[in-house]
Amino acid sequence: MSASTMFDSGDSHAVDPIDRVGSRPDFAVxxxxxxxxxxxxxxxxxxxxxxxxxxxxxxxxxxxxxxxxTSRTYTSVIGGGTYGQSIDPVAAWSRExxxxxxxxxxxxxxxxxxxNGGDAVIGVDVRLISPFGVELGRTTISLAAKSQIQYxxxxxxxxxxxxxxxxxxxxxxxxxxxxxxxMVDNDSGDPVFFGGR
Length: 197
What we know:
Blueprint: H1 2-5, H2 17-20, H3 44-51, H4 57-62, E1 96-104, E2 108-116, E3 122-129, E4 135-143, E5 147-152, H5 153-156, E6 164-172, E7 177-185, E8 191-195
Antiparallel strand pairs: 1-6, 2-5, 2-7, 3-4, 3-6, 7-8
């Protein structure tokens, strides 16, 4: 279990080529696994043999698989892939949406997406706004009825590739819009979902 949840992603900037390679397995077979080191679910004999008779609670939690699952962790189903990004349900359709907290830096990149829940095509005015209220970029997209589209911020706003932290503002021609963002860690590839408000 530990090899499939507590792998090293590698460091693409490392000098040593070995350190650039991650240790995430391509698949995992759980044969008699010790999933948890936390009571009451752990097998007490395995816990004592692996951690001793009085293990540190923080260490036991860190070595418990149920706390180590990320979007890059593979499922144990053959051909199942990774758990992927968690997506919140659409809370409400609106004419205007703001998605704060997105980033374009050397550490993170962001994607933005738009959903049209209506029965007609809508136009969407899309702006990137700095924390100081400065417009970093602006464009317009067309969104077909009952459709969804996602762009990388770099593709939608080529001049904003190092925008830092920003807010996405989307204004639609009808109150059938849902906008969202996805911030991705450039080293691990782990995404975090930001629903529009």
